[in-house]
From TrEMBL:
Keywords: Cell projection, Cilium, Flagellum. This is Flagellar biosynthesis protein FlgB. GO terms for cellular component: bacterial-type flagellum basal body. InterPro entries: Flag_bb_rod_N (IPR001444). Its main location: other. It is found in: Bacterial flagellum basal body. Pfam families: Flg_bb_rod. Residues 12-38 form the Flagellar basal body rod protein N-terminal domain.
């Protein structure tokens, strides 16, 4: 039942996106001293949500939606906006820390949406307080 409600699908996708972005940030930080490594990022969640409906996810490749549990990591792209060090590395520790905080906030927001929606659903069927 919960899997058929759009709010739960959206909250779940938002949490997976945040987890995927956190994985990309962690990979960037792990390679911050690797010569020639180019920092990566993922598209913001609002750009991934499609225009087919209010909560429709946009498929970027065949079998993408529903089969890939790590949506954001599969959409990682090279961040060309950052400056490159003399070794060719483009990772900025400060920028990655800010991205990490954004991902944590997005994940917390998704969990709050999920829990609040579940509480409302329980209350509506007379099982919640």
């Amino acid at each position: 039942m919960l899997k058929s409600l759009e709010i739960f699908k959206t909250a779940s996708a938002m949490a997976r996106h945040a987890a995927g972005r956190q994985a990309v940030v962690a990979r960037n930080l792990a390679n911050s001293d690797t010569p020639g490594y180019q920092a990566q990022d993922v598209k913001p969640f609002k750009e991934i949500v499609g225009s087919g409906g209010p909560h429709q996810m946009r498929a970027t490749r065949v079998g993408h939606i529903g089969h890939d549990t790590n949506v954001a990591a599969s959409q990682a792209f090279t961040d060309t906006t950052s400056q490159t060090s003399p070794s060719g590395n483009s990772v900025s520790i400060e920028s990655e820390m800010l991205k990490s905080i954004e991902a944590e906030r997005q994940h917390s927001r998704a969990i709050t949406i999920y829990q609040t929606s579940l509480s409302i659903l329980k209350t509506s069927v007379g099982r919640g307080r």
